[in-house]
Amino acid sequence: MRGSPQVLHRKRIPQHLRDAALGQVQLSYDMQDERDDALKHCPPFVRNQILKFLYRRSIADNYLLHETTTTLVDSLTNFVHLEFFFPDTPLIDPFQVRFTP
Prior knowledge:
The chain is mainly α. The protein is built from four helices and no strands.
């Protein structure tokens, strides 16, 4: 993180993009205790059980998953990871979204 501002400046990244990038880096650093990165060192079964304990209710309560099987919800918990974003940060660029038939 220490060298990030110099690298962004040297590559002539516009100031608003530099601010956004450095803000995300700082947020990631500040929130590292909340993330589940330590679980990557656990055996898959233990990791999946912990993720299921932490996130199953949040996933199951999602409107899109109502009336789905518990097997599907449990399978989805294996792929959950936390990410933090600033409010009003666009996550999807509508011009880059492509739908294929």
